[in-house]
């Protein structure tokens, strides 16, 4: 069967991403909760995990480039930021030239925010404004980027599960500023534990959405979300709890200059899918598998390791013009 996938640019799928290649990665999910503890020890196991994470991100970046996606790859060599690879929690970009910086729940993870990443975006893309919500940390309000929020850029809707990582007031402030409609819902796993990050159970692409629908606790809200996604023209792929555990929800749609729409996910996530689910996804986007076994042990996956760039590329300018622009913004 010949599959005809969309080839035109989609507001949902960025053509470029920023990634951070870590050197002192930790697999501990709470490694960033304290700024006083040692974040990576001298044990050989720690060193091995860090090296594996470095290789995984390097290989993933190469694979995306091979598939026609632009990757801006930064190095992180600080022991104080073991989860820097998950930059989507502090950074997002938006059509119209906006860059957003977010308030982080874990004190240590606030050190992951980087001026050099912002400077790169200003230099190579048209940035109208940098909106910085990090001061909300002083009020104990946290909103961890595209981990806490899942964007439907077509319908201008933000889906979010409230948690320590997604404060309702901060979410309302963001939505009011960027003119998104918030859809807030409760979700929990099979053991009754609340979902911490919305992107663990929901991925929205141009023509397909992956949803851990069984985790939504309110049947009426579950029906509303499914209806919204279907009415937006998307096929909804319902993920089981086991598939959510395998990080199938933490995929990200990208746009390749050569292949059209792609859905990047980990090899483990892909292996958890049934063939009929794969077939449904690939009617809309080509699946690209990335080996991310090590970083998934810390709770993140493909979606978490990339900040999509929804900005227009800047035309070639002189070095002096770029420096002047960066200073002005």
By CATH, the topology is L-arginine/glycine Amidinotransferase, Chain A
CATH superfamily: L-arginine/glycine Amidinotransferase, Chain A
Query: H/E element string?
Result: EHEEEHEHEEHEEEHEHEEHHEHEH
Strand order of the largest sheet: 2-1-15
Helix percentage:
25-40%
The coarse silhouette is globular
First CA to last CA: what distance?
Answer: 50 Å
Radius of gyration: 19 Å
Give the CATH level 1 class: Alpha Beta
Which structural class is indicated by helix and strand composition?
Answer: alpha/beta
Give the overall average pLDDT: 91
Q: What about the largest sheet?
A: 3 strands, mixed
Number of helices: 10
What does the secondary structure layout of this molecule look like, with pairings?
Elements: E1 16-22, H1 44-66, E2 70-76, E3 91-94, E4 98-101, H2 115-124, E5 129-132, H3 145-148, E6 149-152, E7 157-160, H4 168-178, E8 181-184, E9 202-204, E10 208-211, H5 219-231, E11 235-238, H6 241-245, E12 252-256, E13 260-266, H7 267-272, H8 275-282, E14 286-290, H9 293-296, E15 307-308, H10 319-328
Protein name: Amidinotransferase
Pfam family, one: DDAH_eukar
InterPro entries: Amdntrnsf_FN0238
Walkthrough of the structure:
The chain has 329 residues and is an alpha/beta fold. It has a single domain, classed as 5-stranded Propeller (L-arginine/glycine Amidinotransferase, Chain A), CATH 3.75.10. It has ten helices and 15 strands. The chain has helices spanning 44-66, 115-124, 145-148, 168-178, 219-231, 241-245, 267-272, 275-282, 293-296, 319-328, and strands at residues 16-22, 70-76, 91-94, 98-101, 129-132, 149-152, 157-160, 181-184, 202-204, 208-211, 235-238, 252-256, 260-266, 286-290, 307-308. The protein has a three-stranded mixed β-sheet with strand order 2-1-15, with helices on one face. Strand 10 (208-211), helix 5 (219-231) and strand 11 (235-238) form a beta-alpha-beta unit. The radius of gyration is 19 Å and the shape is globular. It starts with 15 loop residues before the first strand and ends with a helix.
